[in-house]
Amino acid sequence: MHVLFTESTSFDPTKGSRYVKELDIQSANKVAVSTITPTNHNYSGATYLTNRHAWAVNKVLVNGNNHQPYFGGDIQLHLRVNGSWQHRGTYADGGNYTYIRKVRGSDYKAVASKGVGEIDNGNTQIRIEVK
Prior knowledge:
mainly beta, four-stranded antiparallel sheet, three-stranded antiparallel sheet, 10 strands
């Protein structure tokens, strides 16, 4: 079982550091936690990117770190290579991406929020497809 989560060094979302991590439970006696990358938003900071059946977990999309506390950042792609996560690309257009999530039942597609988190403050939703 694989679980993505964000660990924060502060309960205050405008302070401290945040990291996207993965909990990998292979058996009752084999559990590992790995750090994938720093992120800047304290929840919905990453999603697994899989085919429609989600059998293989080897890609993660992350809203990165634009160094402005609480806000998101550029969209990063990380791949699992020989058991560890490696950064493979960044989509950067000056947008501030948060709330990234996989589109269920799709092949390698996700959505994310661009801009301030609330729609009435100019937020838009974008579609992401990794080929």
